[in-house]
Design a protein that fits this description.
The protein is mainly beta. The protein has a single domain (12-382), classed as 5 Propeller (Tachylectin-2, Chain A). Helices cover 11% and strands 42% of the residues. It is globular, with a radius of gyration of 20 Å.
Amino acid sequence: MATLHETHTISRQKFLKLLTLGAASVQLEGASPTREKYTPQYPIYRYSDFLEREKNPQDIRFLEALSRIGNLPVLSDASSAQEYFIRNPGFVGTDGLSNRIDCISTAVVPDAIRSTEEANLLIDARMISVGHHDLSSNGQRCEVYALTSSNGGEIYTHTLLEAGTSASQANLKVLKNGAVLVFWEADKKPYGNEPARWVQGSLYPTINEVLTNSPTEITPPQRFLPYSQFEGTPEIEKTIFFTNPPILSKSLIQLSFHACVQGVDQMGEAILLNGKKVAAWLRDDINSTLRYIGIEGNIGSRCNVGNWMIGEAQWNKGDFSTFRPYLFEKNMQAMVLDIPLITPFGHDQIGNPRIVVDGDYLLISGFCFAPQNGYSFVARIRF
């Protein structure tokens, strides 16, 4: 388990030992004086303590499933196995690359959309995913992956964004009518020579347009907060479209995003009306609670599953091996730490966590900052 810098902060192990059930006012012995400006807004629990007090059977199954990932059978490729763990998925892009895919975001395609004759889909995809290659020659590029309904294996890949665009950290959502909404982190320098890593989005009428890279609308890269250095890693929280079929120019969308402020990422949220920002703010409640307990590095939300928000927190600034997932339970307004999410290889240095419900299963993806060679992964587990 990673520790914080002992000269300024309490260690992660010591904090977890001091942490008592629901105690948001843990005395941080030896903590940095700068932490006094942070106030925990929510009760903070260890995973094991929260599991003991949780009463909802479905939430208990959800929590317990996360702790069983380390026992999954390791496969080299997607298969018909009901439960599996895949290290470094061998997705092959349209350019023949087979390097790792990171920041995988997956959405389930409703059966009602797939079963209609008029849908006329190019493929019968039960799920659709988007991730990015880390290309050394021209930055990063997002690609889309369609998953079959028969065995969960990938059958199609295609460039989602135009060639040459440095794009990453994409998130997608399949709407009720089958349209696909995608937001991603763009690096385009729209403000002269100022570094520009902002948020951009696009709308596709059906999966067909995703696979052929034919969006009907694309928003310009947007900066949500005037004082941030960079912004990105968008997560689609809520959507309201005022027309059918949906169009971005008549919509209301809530996003969460990472905002780099004073050299570290903070969690932020934004409201977009007709594709353009009308309001944005930092989630000081989340940020302050995590800073108070000793998180010095990047903080951000990654996905939402039911009443759970799943995020990532970097205990030591600049040290990617100290990334760990955290949970925020929305109904009880409680923070859950020390999640026992460990890969079958014994690694717990996990960032970019994303979870989607697939019937009776959870599809969990992330990136493991393991010693020497990190790897992306996809796990499917019953809950």
